[in-house]
């Protein structure tokens, strides 16, 4: 993997701030409309159809406060699969670090909310899920190429 291929402008503090603000706005719209607004992601290099978005809420590992992130997800039976890509950033997203400290999470899809336990997929599970995730959102492959870290695949399921 060649991290140098990651567009430099993505590492700008301004871009990071815009992404944070966009996530907060998306979360507010999603909650206010039960997912009618903000419930799909329509941006991507090879996006064939809108990708579904859920709201993942973790407990802040430092603050102890709930933290919510809108994420593309894959439904796999009763499980929800999310990707800790952070756009190919060299660091894991805060929500991923939070669930490592406390794996109890909630996921909102539309107006439904699920209390779940999150865990990082094993290597075999990741190998099985990754092609399905890329089929859902092709940019995951670009993000994977931009970073030297292995992008975690997270499985959220009932305890």
Walk me through this protein's architecture:
With 159 residues, the chain is of the alpha+beta class. The protein has one domain: Electron Transport, Fmn-binding Protein, Chain A (Pnp Oxidase, Chain A, Roll), CATH 2.30.110.10. The chain has helices at residues 13-33, 94-101, 123-136, 139-146, and strands at 40-41, 51-59, 66-76, 79-83, 104-109, 112-120, 153-157. The chain has a 6-stranded antiparallel barrel with strand order 2-3-4-7-6-5. Strand 3 and strand 4 (79-83) form a beta hairpin.
CATH class: Mainly Beta
CATH topology: Pnp Oxidase, Chain A
Give the amount of beta strand, in percent. 25-35%
Biggest sheet descriptor: 6 strands, antiparallel, barrel
| Domain tally | 1
Give me the CATH superfamily: Electron Transport, Fmn-binding Protein, Chain A
- Helical content stands at 25-40%
CATH architecture: Roll
Low-confidence stretches: none
Quantity of strands, as a count = 7
Alpha-beta content class: alpha+beta
- Write the H/E string, N to C: HEEEEHEEHHE
- What would the average pLDDT be, to the nearest integer? 88
Compact overview of the structure:
A hairpin with a 2-residue loop joins strand 3 and strand 4. The protein is of the alpha+beta class and 159 residues long. It is 32% helix and 30% strand.
Helix/strand layout:
Elements: H1 13-33, E1 40-41, E2 51-59, E3 66-76, E4 79-83, H2 94-101, E5 104-109, E6 112-120, H3 123-136, H4 139-146, E7 153-157
Antiparallel strand pairs: 1-2, 2-3, 2-5, 3-4, 4-7, 5-6, 6-7
InterPro entries: F420H2_quin_Rdtase, Split_barrel_FMN-bd
Family: Belongs to the F420H(2)-dependent quinone reductase family.
Protein name: Nitroreductase family deazaflavin-dependent oxidoreductase
């Amino acid at each position: 993997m060649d991290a140098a291929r990651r567009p430099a402008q993505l590492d700008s503090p301004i871009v990071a701030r815009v992404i944070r603000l966009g996530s907060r706005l998306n979360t507010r719209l999603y909650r206010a409309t039960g997912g009618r607004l903000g419930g799909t992601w329509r941006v991507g290099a090879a996006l064939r159809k809108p990708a579904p978005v859920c709201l993942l809420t973790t407990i802040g590992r430092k603050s102890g406060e709930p933290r919510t992130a809108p994420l593309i997800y894959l439904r796999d039976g009763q499980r929800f699969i999310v990707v800790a890509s952070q756009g190919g950033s060299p660091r894991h997203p805060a929500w991923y670090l939070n669930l490592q400290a406390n794996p109890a999470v909630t996921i909102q899809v539309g107006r439904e909310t699920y209390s779940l336990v999150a865990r990082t997929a094993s290597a075999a599970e990741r190998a099985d899920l990754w092609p399905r995730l890329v089929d859902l959102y092709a940019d995951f492959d670009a993000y994977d190429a931009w970073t030297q870290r292995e992008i975690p695949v997270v499985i959220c399921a009932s305890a």
